[in-house]
Design a protein that fits this description.
- The chain has a four-stranded antiparallel β-sheet, with helices on one face.
- Helix 8 runs antiparallel to helix 9.
- The chain is an alpha+beta fold and 343 residues long.
């Protein structure tokens, strides 16, 4: 009896020691992230994106991880406070299902789709191609939610976020936190793991680079479209609309000719009190052009525009001071012996 009692006590001590040695910690992977997603119709027209992706770089020894989300039709800012709520319910043995079920997120009023997948399928998702995902850890047509992921804890995971609406935009907030076993010793990575991580990181960098290039091309196209549209409305005599589109182009990128066009619009719309200052902005940028020839062409074209406007529009009764300013700058530029671009 004495021996049995000692064995029982020893087993209790061993079990107790094992439990006490277990230590879990929470690591915030992403604080609340905000994504504005256009509707599917605008994406089809090439004027916005209805989808985006979020990489999930999980730390070593991740036991499980969680993400919360909320989608609204209104723009704004909010914190989902997932990390703070998880900290409050963390126990030595981890996070119980009952406590996890008590986590709250702000109510949403716009449906969104969130798919958990890997790198390759995230790339297909962004391209609008057919892709696969993990249904148990994904959500479709939800306005808000909290999701626990206790498998697929390898690297290279992504959340693919989509606004399924045809006519309305959506602002989606997402937060991600991982539960990590800090008592488990970290093992040195194998050569295969090092190579795999390197490939995953390289592919991720390529994807981000391609995304940036795609966005830059889209912005360049919008810039040129606004520029050309402003010119078309000027030539049709609608100076107010011309100003609006030229200003939209300037919000995406600056160029001396754009300021000259805006100054011309202002002068023809009887805003002569502001057109001189606008022309000066363009003149101050003339040495930022790539070549002397480009600068001369921009100045000569602007002078010609003003001279033609005097004869074309009967309500224009005088030549603005900008003509003289442009002519002086043209003489200065032509006299430059060696062009040096200035930033």
């Amino acid at each position: 009896m004495f021996i049995m009692r000692n064995i029982y006590l020893l087993l209790c001590l061993v079990i107790s020691g094992t439990l006490l040695s277990q230590k879990y910690d929470l690591q915030q992977i992403h604080a609340t992230q905000k994504f504005y997603l256009n509707n599917a119709t605008r994406e089809a027209l090439g004027t916005g994106n209805s989808k985006t992706t979020l990489s999930i770089p999980l730390p070593d020894n991740t036991v499980e991880w969680y993400y919360s989300f909320s989608a609204t039709r209104e723009d704004g800012s909010q914190s989902l406070n997932l990390f703070g709520q998880l900290i409050n319910i963390l126990e030595p043995s981890g996070i119980s299902g009952a406590m996890f079920g008590a986590i709250t997120v702000p109510d949403g009023n716009a449906a969104c789709n969130i798919y958990m997948t890997d790198f390759e399928n995230a790339r297909l998702f962004e391209e609008g191609s057919r892709f696969t995902y993990y249904p148990a850890h994904s959500r479709e047509s939800y306005t808000e939610g909290v999701v626990k992921v206790n498998e697929f804890n390898g690297q290279g995971l992504y959340l693919c976020i989509e606004n399924p609406a045809n006519w309305e935009g959506a602002t989606v907030f997402v937060e991600v936190t991982a539960l990590v076993d800090t008592a488990k010793p970290e093992k040195a990575p194998t050569t295969e793991e090092i190579i795999t991580d390197g490939i995953v990181n390289l592919l991720g960098a390529i994807q981000e680079n391609n995304k940036a290039k795609k966005e830059a091309r889209k912005q360049e196209e919008q810039f040129r479209n606004y520029w050309n549209t402003g010119r078309v409305f000027y030539e049709s005599g609608d100076f107010e609309t011309a100003m609006s589109y030229t200003q939209k182009a300037l919000e995406l990128g600056e160029h001396p000719t754009l300021y000259f066009n805006l100054g011309l619009d202002q002068w023809c719309s009887d805003s002569s009190n502001t057109c001189t200052a606008t022309y000066l902005k363009g003149l101050n940028m003339i040495y930022q052009l790539e070549s002397q020839e480009e600068a001369i062409e921009a100045l000569e074209a602007s002078i010609q525009d003003l001279e033609e406007a005097v004869s074309k529009y009967h309500f224009v009764s005088y030549t603005p001071p900008a003509v003289r300013l442009l002519a002086l700058k043209l003489e200065e530029v032509k006299a430059v012996e060696k062009w040096k671009r200035r930033f």
